[in-house]
Amino acid sequence: MRIQWFPGHMTKAIRMMEDNLRLVDALIYVIDARAVSSCINPLFSKLLNGKRVLCVFNKCDLVEAADLKLWCDEFKRQGKSYVKAVGTSGDCSQIVAGLKAVMADKLEKYAKKGANISVRAMVVGVPNSGKSTIINAMIKKSKAVTGDRPGVTRGKQWLSVDGIDFLDTPGTLWGKFENQLVAHHLAYIGSIKDDVLDTFELACDFVDELKHIASESLKGRYKLDSLDGEAYEIVEDIARARGFKLRDNELDLFRAGRTLIDDFRKGRLGKIMLEYPDKDL
Length: 281
Hints:
6 strands; 12% strand; 281 residues; alpha/beta
C-alpha cells in the first residue's frame, strides 16, 4: 500500500513554527523510540539551524532498554543531546533538567547579570509522538491538548515550568514520502490519520515486517501455530483466533487488522523497535 498524507493544517503549522523561531532559544525534539529514523522530519532541518536542540526519546517503555541504548550511543556519537522519557508516567522532570544542561552557558550568563529570564523552547515532533503528554507531565497539569490521534494540537500554546517557557506546536509531517517504509512506520505508530489508510492492507504490510522482527510475539499474542502463509492469510488467522466475524459469518478482516495495529501501539505485542541505527531504511 502506498501512503501519502499532508493535510492543510500542517502547512499552517510549519509557517507558525517558522514565524516563532525568533522567539525561542532551543528546540525540544520529541521522538517515538519505536521509530527513531522515521520521526526525524526533514522539514525541521532549517529549524535546527543555529538553535540548541534536546532530543527526547519518548515511549521508552515500549522498547527494550538494550535496543534503545543503540540509539543513545548513536546520538552521543553524533554529539546530539538527548534524554529518555515515558510521557504517560506523569514525571518528565529529566527533560527540564536536560534542557537546562543544554542551555547552561546562557543561564549562567543571565545569572551573572542578575537577570531573571526564562529559557524559551519550542516543542516539535511528528504527530502522535507524545509532545503534549510530555508537556503535561512536566507541568503536572493537563493544560496542553492531548489525544491518541494525529493532529490534535492545532494552535500555539505557551506553558511555563521551573524557569522554562514551552511553546507547544502541532505535530508536523513532510509533504511527500520518498521512502514508503518510513511512511508505513509512521502509520504503525499512529502519526498518520487512520481514516486515510486501508487498515487491512496496512495490517498485511505490518505482518510482513513482524514476521522478521517479532515473530514469537505475533504468534504468542494471537495463539498462531505458524506464520508460514501469506500476510493476508495470517490476518485471517487473527480474525479466526479472536472470533471476529460479520453478520454473514465471513471473517471481519478490518477488525482483525485494526486490532493488530492497536495492539502494537499499546504495547500488547511486547516491546518492539522498528528501526535500528545500523540499518538503512
